[in-house]
Amino acid sequence: MNDMLPTEELDILITRVVDNEATDADWSRLQELGAKDAAVWRRLAEEQQMHAMLCTAARPLLASSDEVETPLVRTTASRSPWSLRIGAGLGWAAAAALALMWYVAPGSSPTPVNATDSVVDTRQVEQPVGNLTDVALRGDADDLYSRYLDVGLQEGRVVGQLPSRMVEVQRAPDGQGYVVLYVRPILERQRVNDLYKFGVDEQGNPQTLRTLPANFTEKQTY
Amino acid sequence: MGHVNRNEEHELARRAIGGDSDAVRDFWRLSRRWVAAVLLAHMPRDCELEDLLQDVALTLVNRISDVRDPAATRGWLRMVAVNTAKTAARKRRPTLRLVPAPEDVPSDVPDLAGAGEADDPALREEAKRALEAARELPGDYSEPLLLRCVHGMTYQQISEALGLPVTTIETRLARARRMLRENLSAGDGRSAATGA
Questions:
Q1: Does the CB of A87 have a partner CB in chain B at under 8 Å?
Q2: What span, in angstroms and rounded, lies between the C-alpha atoms of A73 and B25?
Q3: Which residue of A92, A209, B42, B100 pairs with A199 in a disulfide if CB–CB is 3.0 to 4.6 A?
């Protein structure tokens, strides 16, 4: 392109045209510059193409924000569980798993505990709630899951998150979006006094049995 | 949610600030796409956009009553989004990979990373590269550029969200596009040199 063309001015003009903000005066000036150097039109075409590409890539991401509602909206009973953001279910799964670990961990309460009792009852979250602060303080599954990770990292219990694994993707029954099933594993560390495994006694009753580290040699890959 | 004018938006913000939960919800629905663009411009690459959107939505619900001027709500929400993205960058959690297992990912799973809607894989790849390059720009430049990708965001609306004059917005957009073009060309040059 001709080096004599005013670069800054041309950049602004082209930007206005690309963004549909150009005035008649801008178009006149652009035509004037284009008459001097046809490369101006090539630049315009390139910029329009680049903007279109950028929007092509960005818009699906931006549109995904439509799935994110304010906490109050998410708690209304009319909303289908599947319309909740994916991952929420996994968050509860992780919380439930945590509760189960608490149940089987040595030193825990000898009274059998229902795993769901140890975490916030999801039904509480699903009920319509009028008080915004109340909802926010209780937190939703993602919020609690996030807090679990943060606290777990601080305490050294959570080592990190492993990459998620996709299990299944299906079109949602109502035709709106997809239902995604995936596993989101978390690596945890815990110090224990003894090692136990689940087994059965001579009458076939379930029982925890003391075991040795050698029995935990099975490698997991992710 | 359909398009609303400036006065309607301010009225919605006023009701939201006053504690009207329907207005809070509607204000969020009106804003969430451009909030996503702001987050995209500032957040770390390995963060989940939806996670951060949830955080912003939660802050909106909890703190909107702190806003004094309804006309400033858009700017306030943008600051919430920027701070959320920066906080996410500070407290990134370790992500581990014990064994690389690309074969575990089913090949028919749709690309959930938002790689674009173009049918042509080459175009889609190019679009993805353009987006990545845009996100590599300094936030002052990537933010207006990505906000322009939100349907209906005019220079005036972007200037209100960013609290900057319209002339500054268009200057930043022009520079952003120049930088983006140069960076993409440099990338092409490097690819050609390495035979990629």
A1: yes
A2: 7
A3: A209
